[in-house]
Automatic annotation (TrEMBL):
SUPFAM superfamilies: Homeodomain-like (SSF46689). This is Transparent testa 2 family isoform 2 prematuration type. Residues 12-68 form the HTH myb-type domain. InterPro entries: Homeodomain-like_sf, Myb_dom, Myb_TF_plants, SANT/Myb. Its main location: nucleus. It is found in: Nucleus. The gene is TT2-2.
Length: 113
């Protein structure tokens, strides 16, 4: 009779699903700084995190990655987005993040008022 292969992954029930702690953020940052990005499915086990690979990837890409610009956009950036939207129409939204979509919506709302 064949035995099931023991998985080294954390079981689904054992995964942390809530907010990330400062300690988890530090572990993820330190691991990626040393090993680099990639192999997200094996990263949690190797780093000692009780998170899924997708959660680690999204946390890194959206919150922890160096160079992420936070805060309000400049008026020049807003004008560029509006010009690109006038040029490309809603096709711009297929390339853009939700933030750009929200900026366009609010700009149109301001113009209508």
């Amino acid at each position: 009779m064949m035995r099931k292969r023991e998985s080294s992954r954390v079981k689904k029930e054992e995964l942390n699903r809530g907010a990330w702690t400062d300690q988890e953020d530090k572990i993820l940052k330190d691991y990626i700084m040393f090993h680099g990005e990639g192999k997200w499915s094996t990263l949690p086990n190797q780093a000692g995190l009780k998170r899924c690979g997708k959660s680690c990837r999204l946390r890194w890409k959206n919150y922890l990655r160096p160079g992420i610009k936070r805060g309000n956009i400049s008026s020049d950036e807003e004008e560029l987005i509006i010009r690109l939207h006038n040029l490309l129409g809603n096709r711009l939204l297929t390339f853009a993040f939700t933030k750009i979509h929200n900026i366009l919506f609010l700009s149109k709302k301001k113009l209508a008022a």
